[in-house]
Amino acid sequence: MSKVILTGDRPTGQLHVGHYVGSLRERVKLQNSGDFDRIFIMIADAQALTDNADNPEKVRRNIIEVALDYLACGLDPAKSVMFVQSAVPELCELSFYYMNLVTVSRLQRNPTVKAEIQMRNFEASIPVGFLTYPISQAADITAFRATTVPVGEDQLPMLEQTREIVRRFNAVYGDTLVEPDILLANNAACLRLPGIDGKAKMSKSLGNCIYLAEDADSVRQKVMNMFTDPGHLRVQDPGKLEGNTVFTYLDAFCRTEHFDRHLPEYPDLDALKAHYQRGGLGDVKVKKFLNAILQEELEPIRARRLECRKDVAAVRDMLEQGSRTAREVAAGTLADVRRAMKINYFDDASWLRECEAGA
Ligand code: ATP
Ligand code: MG
Asked: Which residues share a beta bridge with 38?
């Protein structure tokens, strides 16, 4: 069986460093590993509309922004098919059939959707499309016969839902769909990077982000204002690491070589953490170190993004071509699905024979 990746992002804003450590950085590595036969990266505009129905302008505007973030991070159209979800209408039809295999109570139990409903104050009036977006995600994943889905931890319930749909579909209609595996970051801090407020996950919808495209000054300001340990008032006080956003970010971004370049008096992150816990290490010093690391990582991304921005028409063409390719693949899966469900009446000679026989 060929190895296929499907993953994507909602065009609800520019991409942030949470996306980067949770999925984007890994995608680029996987893309360049040559281990995969095909890679599909979807800009999920239709999904974004499920909670932005009254703001299509926002979604429309951010499609190019997300594509620019992709290219800036190193996704390469020669190796990865980047496409726009709504340009592949086959995905809607697949969702429509999968809906019959899922109960409303199953959707209501989805912990990520539950949390998102609360966050958006949808409790009293949940848009049907929003409640059912895990089904449409199953369509996205299965349409490309994805075997591997590299995403953040919040996507675990979606993958579980997809696997259930695949198993149910294959049991009812015969072996047709591929059951995908989730690929999570192997570092706990990257699974769900908190926002700069330290409270929830960094999320475009919460405005607690450091964006990949953000200028150096603004990144520095955000790092310097970051939440640490409220009990660490004086430099000599012992500090806590739990819930300390600056250290969580260091867990996500710091590599040993960063110490040689930016903080040579410590051999590694464990030594820095031990000093902080003992007392005698101030927040400002740790924040300056984090800022240096972030700037080093983000600078080439910002530079490439500016370069790609000079030719937005080329980005548009890349998405159009990618969407065409994606559509061909999804149409193949849809044909298999229709055949398995025996609803391909007009290219199925046995249907006419059954009708004639009155069966
Ligand atoms: P929205 O608020 O519109 O839902 P978002 O910031 O949650 O936006 P998505 O487009 O929903 O971003 O997520 C895209 C991908 O990035 C998913 O794989 C998701 O798991 C991952 N991701 C998003 N936020 C984080 C985070 N803070 N840490 C790790 N991974 C994340
Ligand atoms: Mg999200």
From this structure: 4
The pLDDT tens digits for 213-249 are 999 999 999 999 998 999 998 999 999 999 999 999 9
Residue 318 has pLDDT above 80, yes or no: yes
CB atoms within 10 A of CB 238: 13
Q: Is the CB of 52 under 6 A from ligand 1?
A: no
Atom from ligand 1 closest to the CA of residue 190: 29
pTM: 0.94
Looking at all shown ligands, the one closest to residue 112's CA atom is: 2
Instruction: Find out whether the beta carbon of 19 lies less than 6 Å from any atom of ligand 1.
Output: yes
Q: Is 112 in the pocket of ligand 1 (CB under 6 A)?
A: no
Query: Which of ligand 1's atoms lies nearest the C-alpha of 11?
Result: 10
Could you tell me whether strands 181-183 and 4-9 are parallel, antiparallel, or unpaired per DSSP bridges? unpaired
Q: Tell me: pLDDT of 119 over 90.
A: no
For residue 81, the cross-strand partners are 40
Q: Are 347 and 341 in contact (CB under 8 A)?
A: no
Say if CB 71 and CB 308 are below 8 A apart. Answer: yes
- Asked whether 10 lines ligand 1 (CB < 6 A), one says yes
Q: How many residues can be counted in the chain?
A: 359
- 203 Cα–ligand 2 center, Å: 7
Q: Does ligand 1 come within 6 angstroms of the Cβ of 116?
A: no
Distance CA 251, CA 343 (A): 52
Q: What is the CA radius of gyration of the chain?
A: 23
Residue 101 near residue 170 (C-beta atoms within 8 A)? no
With bands split at pLDDT 50, 70 and 90, how would you rate the model's confidence at 203?
confident
247-275 pLDDT tens trace: 999 999 999 999 999 999 999 999 999 99
Q: pLDDT confidence of 341, banded at 50, 70, 90?
A: very high
Q: In what order do the strands lie in the sheet with 148-150?
A: 81-84, 38-43, 4-9, 148-150, 181-183
Sorting pLDDT into bands at 50, 70 and 90, what band is 359?
Answer: low
Contact 316, 276 (CB under 8 A): no
Distance 15 CA to ligand 1 centre (A): 9
